[in-house]
Amino acid sequence: MKFSGFSRDLLTWYRRAARPLPWRREPSLYRTVVSEFMLQQTQVATVLPYFQRWMVEFPDFRVLAAAPEARVLKLWEGLGYYRRARHLHQLAKIVAAEPGRERTPEGWGELPGVGPYTAAAITSIAFSARAACVDGNVVRVLTRLTADESPYPDGVSAARVLTPLAEELLPAQAPGDHNQAMMELGATVCLRRNPCCLVCPVRSYCAGAGRGAPEAYPKIAPKKVERMEVTRVWCERRGSLLLHRTHPDSRRLADLHELPTAEQAGVKKGTGPLLARKKRRITRFDITESIHAAKPAAVRSGEGLVWVPWAELDAIALSGPHRRWIAELRRTGGPAMPRSARGKSEPLLR
Ligand code: SF4
Description:
The chain folds into 2 domains: about 5-220, Hypothetical protein, domain 2 (Endonuclease III, domain 1, Orthogonal Bundle); about 225-340, Nucleoside Triphosphate Pyrophosphohydrolase (Alpha-Beta Complex), CATH 3.90.79. It has 15 helices and 10 strands. It has helices at about 5-15, 20-25, 30-40, 45-55, 60-65, 70-75, 85-95, 105-110, 115-125, 135-145, 155-170, 175-190, 205-210, 260-265, 320-330; strands at about 150, 220, 225-235, 235, 240-245, 255-260, 275-280, 285-295, 305-310, 345. It is globular.
């Protein structure tokens, strides 16, 4: 058989070369779940300090379940995709209430924030369920191994089509280690550009490397990038900064604070002096954000607007880029900014 011995060779390499990540060093169901949530759409290097802090403050499902949501979001601040934090919090409440929960991928797939990939990862690692994980790294490895010429419209379709092959490669023994080894291979050896084929433990099975152009796989249509322009408002009043707190039911940034957009603050676009222009990429959007100064009198009351004293800025959950921009504008002295202030957050009158 073409892939006979594949998993054995992969696992031999993994047990020797895997990075000693904290959720691997002392594995537990809770640590696996937290790491899988944090690693969705986020690189390992970014996750590491968040994971360490999280484990100190929320060492198990029970403690996390009992924590206030504002504190959970605060610890997640800067990791992005904040719905993950809220889902993890909801999941902890369910698991803490029923610790004998079913161990199958289907059972875990019913929990908040757990899709097929996360369910397979959690149950294969924690309970040795025979479920294959297919993320972007694994798609890359599988399409190269088989020199797969199929055009895929996106990564999700590719993962769906390749799942049977991933399941075929999965051994009955240690499926969790095999899944982690596939992901580790994609993350550290079978790189998107310049795969390290000469040191690859499964090179003898790889049709893509055999053809001399493994970078040609996978054949996934490039994402269409959309450009967006956003005008934001910088407005101070008596030692407080005007922010917008996102509605608790928001999909993306629930309960987080950001500099308000001109629409949220009811300010005419581009009227005050331009203080900064920032660019960032969120999923398929290339966003240019222009921050303009505004006078308090120009701001109309609106839902979610709050005046936050400078002294309280560290205590609230603020979106990562906005915290950086605010610190930068204060440091570089944009508008006059007091160093300290007193008082509580003050909602604008509706
Ligand atoms: S031989 Fe090269 S292309 Fe094939 S799996 Fe290994 S690193 Fe990837």
